[in-house]
Design a protein that fits this description.
Layout (H helix, E strand, L loop, with lengths): L7 H18 L23 H9 L4 H13 L3 H5 L6 E2 L4 E4 L8 E4 L2 H16 L19 H15 L7 H14 L4 H8 L4 H5 L6 H6 L8
Antiparallel strand pairs: 1-2, 2-3
Helix pairs in contact: 2-3, 2-6, 3-5, 3-7
Length: 224
Amino acid sequence: MSDKNLKPSSVNLALCSLRFFYQEVLEKEIFNKIKSPKLEKKLPTVLTKDEVRALLAATKNKKHHLLIEMLYSAGLRASEAVSLKVNDLDLTERIGRVISGKGKKDRLIILSNNLVEHIEKYLKKREKKGYKSEFLFHVKDPNKHLSVRQAQKIIQKTAKKAGINKRVFCHALRSSFATHLLESGVDIRIIQELLGHANLQTTQRYTQVSTEEIKKVKSPLDNL
């Protein structure tokens, strides 16, 4: 596998599959001495606030605009955003609920005032057209919602239109949500809850990409 220059994550996946087959099916212990390669630790892609504004300004499609706002406003995973149901949102209290997110866990999410206003207008317009769907991000078939693949394409296409050179995808908006909250002084444990992270270490990755925090550090050269 190393000859094929596969990523450590791909090698680990193959090793886990082989380990399961030999241990559970063949009942043989032959993989105990084989060490898994260390996973790459890449920093998450984070957009600046100006880039988020540019992304929102680059689309006039109301549904696409709403999707970008939802991903950034609540820090949702793509799969969580596209499957949101209207009844999952309490627009009066400005909170929502993710049902069976990653790890099959439910959690509360925050909704911005602007987002709530846009959702209300969007739903009223949809109602006037006589279109009914339990999903916020519906497709032509009211019983179905946008797929993760469709959502990724929307974000990538909009980012290109906005002239953003970074590799932008749905998760970049989730990363930006976490980083911008951290920069504004929100406690990291609260951010952990909002993101639905089981481990605080996962959330702490965003301290490494917080440009505002980094800019506060004074270079030793300036103290000479």
